[in-house]
């Protein structure tokens, strides 16, 4: 394929080297004459293992060139990949100046072409940025079919970028109009089509997660050293658990955490670190973050503007009768305190069997719990105006017929069946589970 790459920075030059190595004809475009000259002299403008040889061979075989003339590059290619920088402003906000200028140049050049052009944006941009560019500069080109625009996030690590490009751990893209981009798949390899804003956000989710992992490892390392423990060894032990620690478990948006372990242990280590004078700001923020998530759920219930609430699932998770630090107990407690009419259904719960700290927790926080528990799910749904689903109860399918179109359904944990019910559905961290 004939490809123009805008931006001879790290991502752009690696992309140029790899695509030309695969046999594509590549034209690099940049305003920096030194970078243009480097490519035309067969020299990689960055240090990356294996890239110099790729650039030298591609240049010698006539598959790679560079120019400052964006109009000629567009005229001579069928696909453009935007890899320009999106640096931070002093305020911390993203600077889209270069991406905007390049996109506007591409659109202006495409207007003079007599054939369709495909644009693939790889510059890291906040959700909504690509849609704004398209709607501000190319609505007519999109409407006539002259332009096709997609966003394809890159996940290249310096030092292993060629390996990451050829064998990506994650390959997704989003398209304006949500249509498959066959040219992109042909060029970049098999990729999953996702909503446009999701393709932009997943890059930030990945980078945030990597940053969280580094900060987590470093904070555990600091407390390890304070205790005379080898932090490197400790984290190598930690990573041996691929069932819970290094796995998809706990990575699914939904209810705040609760139970007998997490709140207690997070609180204990945080208090210990403060006592010992060890700064662990990320770990110390976890409980505040969890509380903010519960506040988010409360706001969803509040803005529904109704008073009769049914909570389905009071224990901290399905399959247990453990009420300790359950976020649903906190939700019920808060709603009752605000004067809401609250009922609770939980088929895991038998008050007569509660003992020990579990019993103490309820006696302390909700002494009138028994009066709020119901045993007839259908009757509870009929009487309620809003139903909070923390768990999927036995007989859920049979209860579907009791949901009228004006009844609000708040789904806390992603129970797919609820979307098919007749009520007004709202997910805790999603509008629809199908997206």
TrEMBL record:
NAD(+) binds at residues 30, 35, 86, 124, 158, 264, 324. The keyword NAD applies. The active site is at 261 (nucleophile). It holds the Pfam family UDPG_MGDP_dh_N. Its EC number is 1.1.1.22. Substrate binds at residues 155-158, 203, 250-254, 258, 317. GO terms for molecular function: NAD binding; UDP-glucose 6-dehydrogenase activity. It catalyses: UDP-alpha-D-glucose + 2 NAD(+) + H2O = UDP-alpha-D-glucuronate + 2 NADH + 3 H(+). It is an enzyme of class 1 (oxidoreductase). SUPFAM superfamilies: 6-phosphogluconate dehydrogenase C-terminal domain-like, NAD(P)-binding Rossmann-fold domains, UDP-glucose/GDP-mannose dehydrogenase C-terminal domain. Pathway: Nucleotide-sugar biosynthesis; UDP-alpha-D-glucuronate biosynthesis; UDP-alpha-D-glucuronate from UDP-alpha-D-glucose: step 1/1. This is UDP-glucose 6-dehydrogenase.
């Amino acid at each position: 394929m004939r490809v123009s790459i805008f931006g001879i920075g790290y991502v752009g030059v690696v992309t140029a080297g790899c695509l030309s190595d695969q046999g594509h004809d590549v034209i690099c475009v940049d305003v920096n004459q030194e970078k243009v000259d480097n490519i035309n002299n067969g020299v990689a403008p960055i240090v990356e293992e294996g890239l110099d040889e790729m650039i030298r061979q591609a240049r010698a075989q006539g598959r790679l060139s560079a120019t400052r003339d964006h109009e000629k590059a567009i005229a001579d290619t069928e696909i453009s990949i935007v890899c320009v920088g999106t640096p931070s402003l002093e305020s911390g906000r993203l600077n889209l100046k270069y991406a905007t200028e390049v996109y506007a140049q591409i659109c202006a050049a495409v207007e003079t072409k007599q054939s369709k052009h495909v644009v693939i944006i790889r510059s890291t941009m906040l959700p909504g940025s690509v849609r704004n560019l398209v709607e501000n500069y190319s609505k007519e080109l999109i409407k006539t079919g002259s332009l096709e625009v997609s966003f394809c996030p890159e996940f290249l690590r310096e030092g292993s970028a060629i390996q990451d490009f050829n064998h990506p751990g994650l390959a997704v893209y989003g398209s304006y109009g949500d249509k498959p981009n066959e040219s992109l798949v042909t060029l970049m390899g098999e990729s999953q089509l996702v909503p446009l804003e999701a393709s932009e956000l997943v890059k930030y989710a990945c980078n945030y997660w990597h940053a969280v992992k580094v900060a987590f490892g470093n904070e555990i390392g600091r407390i390890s050293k304070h205790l005379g423990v080898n932090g490197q060894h400790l984290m190598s032990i930690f990573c041996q658990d691929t069932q819970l620690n290094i796995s998809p478990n706990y990575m699914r948006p939904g209810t705040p955490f609760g139970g007998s372990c997490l709140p207690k242990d997070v609180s204990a280590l945080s208090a210990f670190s403060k006592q010992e004078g060890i700064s662990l700001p990320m770990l110390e923020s976890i409980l505040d973050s969890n509380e903010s998530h519960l506040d988010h759920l409360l706001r969803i219930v509040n803005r529904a503007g109704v008073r009769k609430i049914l909570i389905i699932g009071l224990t901290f998770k399905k399959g247990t009768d453990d009420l300790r630090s359950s976020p649903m107990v906190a939700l019920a407690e808060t709603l009752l305190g605000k004067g809401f009419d609250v009922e609770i259904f939980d088929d895991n719960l038998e008050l007569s069997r509660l003992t020990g700290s579990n019993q103490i927790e309820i006696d302390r926080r909700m002494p009138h719990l028994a009066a709020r528990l119901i045993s007839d799910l259908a009757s509870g749904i009929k009487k309620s105006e809003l139903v909070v689903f923390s768990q999927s109860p036995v007989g859920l399918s049979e209860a579907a017929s009791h949901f009228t179109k004006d009844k609000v359904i708040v789904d806390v944990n992603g129970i797919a069946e609820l979307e098919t019910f007749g009520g007004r559905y709202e997910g805790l961290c999603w509008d629809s589970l199908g997206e």
